[in-house]
Amino acid sequence: MSNRGACHLAAVRLCGLTAQAAMVINLGVEQAAHYGWAQPDPAAAILLPQWQRAERLTNELQAPLFATLTTQQRTEFGQLVRELTTPPLSLRENDLADYTYVEC
Description:
This protein has 104 residues and is mainly α. The chain is built from six helices and no strands.
């Protein structure tokens, strides 16, 4: 699990959400089932504020981890993450039915 993933899981739980509810809110029932949740229920709209708070808390927990980087290092890190998370051009132009892209 990544640093962000660990921080996010902690934030989700601190905000009173289950991991399943958080995944359904973020990705939808179909994707939650794809990731192994057996017959997940649609997340109630009332949980959205908790999800949004968990996202903010995740960012707050992550901030100190990047505070020691210089501006140049943060810029380079951002570029590397974009390169790693952007699908290759060949995949963007073709049928993406079997390719899952999740923007973090």
